[in-house]
Amino acid sequence: MDLNTIKQLIESKIPDAQVDVKGDGYHFQVVVISDAFETKSPVARQQMVYQAVMPHIQSGELHALSITARTQQEWGTSQ
């Protein structure tokens, strides 16, 4: 699976998100910044991202995904 496909899948489920994807074709790291995470727990945020790619995880096409999910404000203060 390529980086752009993962980015598009996440953006399709979280439309206002800024998504950055890195990886080697097998292990991927995603950073998703969205105010849709505002009232969500860390687990709920990861679930939102996983929903976008779940069919590809279930098929084995996408194996390992590390997720950082932050709001705009959280991301700004962590930089």
Largest sheet: 3 strands, mixed
- Could you spell the SSE succession in H and E letters? HEEHEH
Decide which structural class fits the backbone: alpha+beta
Low-confidence segments: none
Question: Strand tally, please?
Answer: 3
How many alpha or pi helices? Answer: 3
For the largest sheet, list the strands in their spatial order: 1-2-3
Helix content: 40-55%
Write the layout of secondary structure elements.
Elements: H1 3-13, E1 18-23, E2 27-33, H2 42-58, E3 64-70, H3 72-78
Parallel strand pairs: 2-3
Antiparallel strand pairs: 1-2
Helix pairs in contact: 1-2
Description:
This protein has 3 helices and 3 strands. The model has no long low-confidence stretch (mean pLDDT 93). By secondary structure, the chain is an alpha+beta fold. The N and C termini lie far apart (29 Å). Strands 1-2-3 form a 3-stranded mixed beta sheet. Helix 1 packs across helix 2 (42-58).
Short description:
With 79 residues, the protein is α+β, with helices and mostly antiparallel strands.
Q: Keyphrases for this structure?
A:
79 residues, single chain, 3-stranded mixed beta sheet
